[in-house]
Design a protein that fits this description.
Layout lengths: L1 E8 L5 E2 L4 H12 L12 E3 L6 E4 L2 E4 L3 E8 L2 H12 L4 E3 L2 E11 L7 E6 L23 H18 L4 H5 L4 E5 L1 H9 L5 E6 L6 E6 L3 E5 L1 H10 L12 E3 L8 E3 L7 H4 L1
Antiparallel strand pairs: 1-6, 1-8, 2-5, 3-6, 4-5, 7-8, 8-15, 9-13, 9-14, 10-13, 11-12
């Protein structure tokens, strides 16, 4: 399940770092302390960076719009519901310099999953972690089988750990191949831009850095695997805000509906 949380930004022009998922990661873990779930429970959730009208400066991203949004997703609906209850019990929150007040929630309506889906990364995708690969900062060419194989191992391990799938279902999930958008990668390289960067992984108790990739790609996989990564993210450290995807050539604002008691009203649409 995926929802878009709409916040009122009370101090327009305030700044967040370019990469700020670690700030929301700590905040979400704080919200979990007010739920029936433990902070260390394997809850399989994912989230994006904060979306809104921004202006770039040397300090980071200045948020200029009155409304900003955060996409939050999870395998289990009850995880989303309890996190929202915990969030809306607070009149305002402080994330970096931003003073935010939660206003409303929209549910993203998911298209029917198929075996071939084209995605874009709305947060960096991490393919390496110590449990699968020794060097979390190594650059791996996305077109190499190694890149797809690491993501396959990560995804199937997480699906098995979730306890959400039977052994018979897991046996059906053998098909998995990621194919990067070659034209996009060539264009980025011609323009001398980067699609892979090193990011700090804060909250691990020690200084850890990982390599994150951002590029469009096609994924060939079982529809249930596609559904899992849409709700839980793809790759490693998804509960730290890495690996959130969206559908290419799709406007998410055109496939939403008000969600539950925190649904969008005409007043907070303005």
């Amino acid at each position: 399940m995926r929802v878009r949380i709409i916040f009122d930004l009370r101090n327009r022009g305030a700044v967040l770092p370019f990469y700020h998922q670690h700030l929301f990661s700590g905040f979400i873990k704080d919200l979990l302390t007010d739920t029936s779930f433990g902070v260390d429970d394997n809850l399989f959730y994912n989230f994006s960076g904060l979306k809104g009208q921004t202006r770039v400066s040397r300090k980071g991203l200045h948020y200029c719009s009155r409304k900003v949004t955060l996409v939050l997703s999870a395998l289990r609906t009850e995880v989303i519901d309890e996190l929202l209850d915990s969030l809306f019990s607070r009149e305002h929150i402080q994330i970096g310099e931003l003073d935010l007040a939660p206003e409303a929630v929209e549910q993203e309506l998911m298209p029917e999953q198929r075996e071939m889906t084209k995605y874009i990364c709305i947060s960096p995708l991490v393919v390496s972690s110590p449990r699968f690969h020794r060097d979390t900062k190594e650059f791996i060419v996305p077109s190499m089988d190694k890149f797809s194989d690491l993501l396959y191992d990560s995804t199937l391990t997480r699906m098995e750990e979730s306890g959400h799938y039977t052994d018979a279902e897991m046996a059906e999930f053998y098909k998995f191949q990621l194919v990067p958008d070659r034209r996009y990668l060539e264009k980025i390289q011609q323009e001398e831009k980067k699609f892979a960067r090193i990011y700090p992984l804060e909250g691990q108790g020690s200084e850890v850095e990982v390599r994150g990739y951002t590029f469009p790609f096609v994924l060939y996989a079982h529809p249930q695997v596609q559904n899992f990564i849409c709700n839980c993210g793809l790759g490693e450290y998804t509960d730290y805000g890495f690996g959130m995807l969206d559908f290419a050539h799709s406007d998410p604002t055109q496939r939403t509906q008000p969600y539950g008691k925190y649904g969008v009203t005409e007043e907070n649409k303005k």
